[in-house]
Amino acid sequence: MSITVEELDKLVRDMKVARDAYEVKSQESKALYAEYVKKDNEVMQALDASGKSKYTVDGLGTVSVVSSLKVRTPKTIEEKQAFLDYISNKYGQEVMIDKVSFNYQSLNAFYKEEFNQADNKAAFSIPGLESPEEERHTRWLSERVKKVQS
Fold first, then answer.
1. CA 126, CA 114: separation in Å to the nearest integer?
2. Is residue 136 part of a domain?
3. Which residue range forms the structural domain that includes residue 58?
4. Residues 6+ apart with CB under 8 A from 90
5. Is 44 found in the same domain as 10?
6. Backbone torsion region of residue 92, taken as left when φ is above 0, otherwise alpha when ψ lies between -120 and 50, otherwise beta
7. 14 within some domain
8. Does the reported pTM lie above 0.85?
9. CA distance 56 to 62
10. Distances (CA, A) of 39 to 7, 8, 28, 35
11. 60 and 81 share one domain
């Protein structure tokens, strides 16, 4: 594919305009979501104050309060080890391994660190991991305006 400098300039400018529009909408979306959460909390408080678990508005719909338990993931090494030991002891090693998941970013950071330390990068691999796939994307860096000193 042959492309002129002018065509490439236009493509980059169009990308920048699209990125700027996305950033504006993303900020709007975050603000709208924050407003929704605020209103949601107000409705929940009003339902609690009135002793109701649900409320219907004719022609609009029904809102109800739903409760569920949420467990946070173990954070410390000790918590993680205790949890994995519990699963392994109660259900076996195979179930424990099945329940373990890996954070994408942490896994990739670990892989890069291991790869960078490898003596033979061409033959490098980690058992249980497929060979990495190249992921390409653009990165935008705005020009910095230099201050003129007088």
1. 9
2. no
3. 5-64
4. none
5. yes
6. left
7. yes
8. no
9. 4
10. 48, 46, 17, 6
11. no
